[in-house]
Model the fold of this input.
Amino acid sequence: MNQPNSWYKVKAIEFDNAEVGSVYGNETNIPNRILLINANNLPEVKTKPGFKLGFRLISSTENTANAQLESLILSREQVGRMVRHNASKIEVVRKVKINEKEYAIKTVIIISKAENKYKKFVRAEANEFIDKLAENKSLKELILDALAGKIQNQLHKKLSKIYPTRATEVRMIEKLSS
Done:
């Protein structure tokens, strides 16, 4: 017989079981759902607007569901605000291994209008930076650094030595395979 549906409080495992939201369902249909929440709703996390965190619900017991951090997403509107007249948008996508799982780190770099050879240099330098960055970090550390703007600032400084960059932003960190 079917279990009755009810509201479950969602607790984030990586953030000391902080309550991040609620979900409607029962113990059989809650696992493997994805819950997107505003990054500012987490305790002790201060960030610019537009970032959402993706949590995968992994288990549920007695009106509580446990969630595991899985992704970071910047809204399309925020990316759109970065692109201005006489600017080129370069998107960099890198596959990296974090804790034996494969993730994609997607970055947006805004530069003044440039020839393709400069774009190629900027893209190559960004790829190298992202590969080194993900070597020794956990997913939580990587996402918290992106939310704080540390990754973007380091990348901006490194790329400005090659070609003047207007803005750099981590657009997405997502898990590729289950």
Q: What stands out?
A: Residues 74 and 171 are 5 Å apart (CA to CA).
